[in-house]
Design brief:
single chain; alpha/beta; five-stranded mixed β-sheet; 19 helices
């Protein structure tokens, strides 16, 4: 996917040798991108000339860049937005509060569009969802050039995630939006105060670059996301290279995993040789420059696309969140993290003080890592170029699901409990689950088997019943919503590669169920009419055979999400070695 406007191989990897105690970063590696520039100019590689040796001895890549001619049209490099997790800080005050407050910068509220989606309504208990836009900036300003931003001016948003925190504040999902997806850009305010006309089709990350400022244009990105999704963005946070590097050091590194070793030539494909080892194969802990190398990495793994890179970024953020949660909310852990985060943080006016930021952070403390999910908005490659189009039909279902505050596995997370019957009577008792050869209660091995449950009929609540039955047999099961069809007569167990034995265990709970192979990962149960009959539940389908309609005054439930979304979802507690690349090549 090289050659696209605004994209660049990783370059300029020097890291400042010193930082303050809140976020020290390791010294830069010698060679790499700077060495590639010397080679391109005929000056030789490492040890290939006096000038190269002097550059290497006198400051590594930063010095080498001074001896090389700057290149035009440098492509962009990924920065990673961890700000959404890092705002989960508490227990600080006094002088610390004042220090954090002085660090925070906000963008112009007047640049936010006037014509916006409506705010989410709170329920009787005051519960409401919160949507947070996380932007990773590769701004070339300040110290970011040495960290990989390069010499060119301006800023790009190489990573953008819409984090939906559900009203119950126990679930959240991060939606990655591909930077090279073609979208319609709205009217945006420029640094000179004028507004663009809007309506043109461009790459998604062109919104952040609008106006060419080194600080980027986060308001334009927020306006674009609201236009794209129909979801109101409550808060926006931007973090740059230097902030990312300092934050990863402040937590003493983040655990990652790679299926293949990564060399300098993978990080910079223009390097005319393999180069030194940068990241070994397997599990490891990274911080500073190496953490940046991991989240920016495209080549040398998978098909070299941004899709694989987004998967690794999701794995990284999940690993970071898990580490913070595990170490606990204490000043020793959170003070250096909060200081490092706010030094390089730009936020919307609604989070422009430490008390606002900390108050929001406290609201996230009850999210379990298994209920923090990550998905990528449905996409497809374009035939006319190497950019992406969003699959609008599937993407619309995803946005609709978030607006309804339904989790991607079909749970209602609005924060509201179901109303009691109007006549004050107790709900009718549910029929007992059918007698089946369930696994022994003590079979803890089943807990390692994850199962997604779909309703293949028009009977409401059937998938939930099957989910509870699986949980009773100690499987790790979740309700994933409606299947693509409501005409399944028999229950079907679909399983991916290497999952046949586990699928047979699951099938033992559903007599007569059929087993089918699937290209998707994991195991899915699609309950059919046979299961509805066994449960004594009548069909709720209308006479015309369509989907059941909602009761008067009650919004219709969102359409079921396609399996391309649900099967590819990642939980923050997933194996860090799983699902970190896309396509062939490891």
């Amino acid at each position: 996917m090289s050659g696209r406007r605004g994209e660049s191989p990783a370059r300029g990897e020097g890291v400042p040798a010193t930082e303050d105690a809140a976020g020290s970063v390791p010294s830069p590696r010698a060679g790499g991108r700077a060495e590639a520039r010397r080679a391109a100019q005929g000056k030789g590689g490492r040890g290939g000339g006096d000038k190269a040796e002097a550059a290497s001895a006198g400051g590594g890549r930063a010095a080498a860049r001074k001896s090389a001619k700057p290149k035009k049209n440098v492509k962009k490099i990924v920065a990673w937005s961890t700000a959404g997790v890092l705002v989960v800080v508490a227990g600080v005050g006094g002088a610390i509060y004042l220090k954090l407050n002085a660090n925070i910068k906000s963008f112009d509220a007047d640049a936010i569009a006037r014509n916006r989606p409506p705010e989410a309504k709170a329920d009787a208990d005051g519960n409401k969802p919160v949507n947070v836009l996380l932007i990773g900036s590769d701004s070339r300003g300040k110290n970011n050039s040495d960290l990989g931003g390069g010499e060119d001016g301006g800023a790009r948003s190489d990573t953008t995630i819409l984090l939906h925190v559900y009203a119950d504040h126990k679930h959240a999902v991060g939606i990655s939006i591909p930077r090279n997806a073609k979208v319609e850009l709205p009217s945006c305010k420029l640094p000179n105060g004028k507004w663009t006309k809007g309506g043109n089709i461009d790459l998604f990350n062109a919104a952040f670059s609008m106006g060419g400022s080194d600080d980027g244009n986060p308001a334009c990105t927020q306006n674009t996301v609201e236009k794209l999704t129909g979801i109101r963005v409550d808060h926006t946070l931007v973090v740059d290279f230097s902030g990312f590097a300092a934050m990863t050091s402040a937590v003493n590194g983040v655990d990652i995993c790679l299926p293949k070793p990564i060399y300098e030539g993978d990080i910079n494909p223009k390097l005319p040789k393999k180069g030194d080892l940068v990241l070994p194969q397997g599990k490891q802990t990274v911080e500073g420059q190496k953490a940046l190398d991991y989240v920016r990495l495209r080549h040398g793994i998978g098909d070299g696309s941004d899709i694989g890179r987004m998967k690794r970024q999701q794995a990284f953020l999940g690993s970071l969140a898990s580490k913070i949660k595990k170490e606990g909310m204490n000043p020793t852990t959170l003070l250096p993290l909060a200081d490092a985060a706010t030094k390089s943080l730009v936020v919307d006016p609604g989070l422009d003080s430490a008390d606002k930021l900390l108050s929001f952070g406290l609201s996230l403390k009850n999210i379990d890592m298994h209920d923090l999910k990550f998905v990528t908005v449905p996409w497809r490659y374009r035939t006319q170029d190497k950019d992406l189009d969003l699959v609008q039909a599937d993407a619309s279902k995803l946005w609709e699901t978030l607006r309804a505050d339904q989790t991607i596995d079909g749970q209602n997370a609005t924060g509201q409990q179901p109303d009691a019957p109007a006549d004050g009577t107790s709900p009718a008792p549910q029929p007992p689950a059918p007698t089946t050869p369930a696994a022994p209660a003590g079979d803890t091995a089943n807990s390692a088997i994850r199962v997604a449950v779909y309703n293949g009929t028009s009977v409401n609540g059937l998938a939930g019943k099957a989910t509870e039955q699986l949980k009773g047999a100690k499987f790790t099961a979740s309700t994933a919503g409606q299947a693509a069809s409501t005409k399944y007569k028999a229950t079907t167990i679909e399983y991916g590669p290497g999952q046949k034995a586990n699928a047979e265990k699951v099938a033992a709970l559903f007599p007569g169920a059929g087993l089918e192979t699937s290209s998707a990962r994991g195991i899915s149960v699609i309950v059919g009419q046979d299961y509805a009959a066994a449960m004594g539940m009548a069909s709720g389908a209308p006479a015309g055979g369509g989907a059941p309609s909602a009761a008067p005054g009650v919004p219709a439930p969102p359409q079921p999400l396609p399996t391309t979304i649900t099967n590819d979802a990642r939980s923050a507690d997933d194996d860090i070695c799983a699902n970190t690349s896309y396509g062939s090549g490891g």
